[in-house]
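With this grant's support, we have settled on a layout for protein records. One resulting record is reproduced below.
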Amino acid sequence: MVRRRLGGSTIRHRLSSLASLFEYLCEKNAVTHNPVKGVERPRSETGEGKTPALGDHQARELLAAPIDDSIRSKCDRAILSTLLFHALRRDELCKLKVRDFRHTCKGVPLLKVSGKGGKMRYLPLHPGTHSLIHEYLDVAGHGTDENGALFRPVRNNRTGRLEKAITPDGIYKLVRAYSAALGFQIGAHALRATAATNALDHEADIAKVQEWLGHANIATTRIYDHRGTRPEDSPTFKMTY
């Protein structure tokens, strides 16, 4: 696995799975020992996440990057806004149906998101995103297709069929192209990191951010919490004698 240049976390995960399998086999007397026991594993990576987060000015530039009134630009604006204001994974965005942005609670529009493991969460829709999705659907023409994909490719040269959802690869290429044109080439996951970091920097409760992101463990959410490294947040400046 090292020769194949797999990441440390991938190697640890696979060795852990093998160790669990052989522990079970030992308990059932199917094998005499656990060959994974004692195998050295890569150290856990600590500290901040590797995915870069954009600054506020870069996020604003990216949101404004699709400049014309074409269907493609309206779609791209809606996608970028959905990613930056709701911190969705690429797969989550691609799974969205038209009906998923029509939910409300106490008059507040909600976005129904199908996360990892089929877990559902409802996120309040940012007013700007809500407006951009409406504008996109008005020109795209599939706003009445409640069970259809919300975000669709504007053109599909291979099949000529446009009712299927945009793919995760399509999302990656979209973000990559716009960010590269602005001088800071990033992947789509950087927008999720940007949203999480921005929310925490502006004093969002970390437990609520965990739920918002769909993280099973709050330790994953803490990767995006950089407040402990800001001098102004040090306990030194919180005391009053």
